[in-house]
Amino acid sequence: MKNYNSLKTLVLSLSMLVSMNASANLIFNFEEKKANSHEVEYSLSDYTLTTKAFNSDGTDADVARWTNGLGVRHIDSPNLEIGEWLTFELDTTFYGIFEIDFSGFGNHDTAGITINVASVEDVFDTTGNNDTWISGYVALDSFRVLGLTGDSAGNGFRISELRLVTEPGALAILALGLMALGVIRRRRVQA
């Protein structure tokens, strides 16, 4: 009977942990028209996300904040030009998977996505109307989105949403380990 109660407590605790974890996902929604500036901060839960925009020559540009998402405000156009980019930096390292929802992508447009200032760049292509890029499990500090190609100048991406998805499996394993330590301690105390 003791084993059954222990198992029941373990299953209940794990289900509570996973449900808490699922609701802890963070969603930064950028679909709101606001004033443009070079650096923009968004706060959500315990995270502050700082976004900056740059021209293709590396000079500062303004983050364009339109109803269809974030882009780079070019001198002649509010749309992203080829070679311009946005950087995103978190003030606290995030562990999990992150997803970038693009909007305003034309057919066959591509963006380069670089995570944590790595030299490796993942190329995201919108062929087939796919507009969400999903990372693998990472320890995320920053990432960059660079407009690589477009059907025409000014026909680049906008980022409408960023989702930070915590990894339920990692927390479940941690919970199992902590519960096992609790059971071992309890048996030692009872013995």
Q: Keywords, please?
A:
single chain, elongated, 191 residues, 43% strand, 2 domains, alpha+beta, eleven-stranded antiparallel sheet, Jelly Rolls, 24% helix
Would you tell me the structural class of the helices and strands?
alpha+beta
Can you write the helix and strand succession as a string? HEEEEEEEEEEEH
Radius of gyration, Cα only, in angstroms? 22 Å
Tell me what portion of residues adopts beta-strand conformation: 35-45%
Known CATH architecture of the largest domain: Sandwich
Low-confidence stretches: 18-23
Beta-strand segment tally:
11
What is the CATH C level class of the largest domain, in words? Mainly Beta
SS summary, helix count: 2
* Overall tally of domains: 2
> Helical amount among residues, as a percent range?
10-25%
CATH topology of the largest domain: Jelly Rolls
Overall geometry: elongated
Overall mean pLDDT: 78
Span from first to last CA? 17 Å
Main pleated sheet: 11 strands, antiparallel
Oligomeric state as shown:
single chain
How would you characterize the overall build of this protein?
The chain is an alpha+beta fold. It has two domains: 1-24 and 168-191, no CATH class; 26-165, Sandwich (Jelly Rolls), CATH 2.60.120. The chain is built from two helices and eleven strands, in the order H-E-E-E-E-E-E-E-E-E-E-E-H. Strands 1, 2, 3, 4, 5, 6, 7, 8, 9, 10 and 11 form an eleven-stranded antiparallel β-sheet that branches. Helix 1 (2-23) packs antiparallel against helix 2. Mean pLDDT is 78; it is low at 18-23.
